[in-house]
Inverse folding.
């Protein structure tokens, strides 16, 4: 906070980086390249293997199994992909975000979110249940979109104080009153 006791104080957070389906060194987590497959469908796997859960895997700059489903990386469902009948795509994924806003009162903070999203395609599975071969994997890597925020319509956040003891169901039921647009 720009000021601990001033209304309309500025709130600026340091960037927070989250990585799924891979292990990167903490010092360079926001900048190191994500593990991705090469043209022969190979990628750097954590030890003992790419299907080891990330919580148990060792090594850095390598892919691991985020969900424990026996597939490398984070498992994403793929639908309506042109040129290839995909079922799932297995990726290393990184998002970095920071918050910038104003503290209007001790009960209300409002601002915008600066965020990035990066993916590295590791493997994929077709709708017929077979794993992608190198040709299909090259197609998926080529289709891998660059995802960015819209410059003229930033993502926003609003933080409000809720009554002590309020349940998640009550917050959802009152969302239009708590978080008006």
């Amino acid at each position: 906070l720009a000021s601990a006791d001033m209304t309309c104080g500025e709130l600026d957070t340091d960037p927070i980086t989250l990585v799924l389906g891979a292990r990167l060194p903490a010092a360079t987590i926001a900048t190191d390249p994500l593990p991705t497959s090469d043209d022969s469908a190979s990628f750097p796997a954590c030890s003992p293997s790419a299907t080891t859960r990330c919580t148990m895997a060792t090594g850095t700059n390598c892919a691991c199994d985020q969900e424990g489903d026996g597939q490398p990386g984070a498992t994403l469902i793929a639908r309506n992909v042109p040129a290839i009948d995909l079922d799932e795509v297995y990726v290393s994924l990184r998002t970095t975000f920071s918050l910038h806003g104003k503290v209007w009162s001790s009960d209300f903070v409002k601002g915008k979110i600066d965020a990035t999203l990066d993916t590295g395609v590791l493997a994929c599975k077709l709708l017929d249940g077979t794993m992608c071969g190198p040709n299909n994997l090259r197609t998926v890597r080529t289709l891998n979109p660059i995802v960015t925020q819209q410059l003229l319509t930033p993502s926003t956040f609003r933080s409000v104080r809720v009554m002590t003891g309020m349940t998640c169901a009550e917050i959802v039921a009152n969302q239009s009153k708590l978080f008006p647009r």
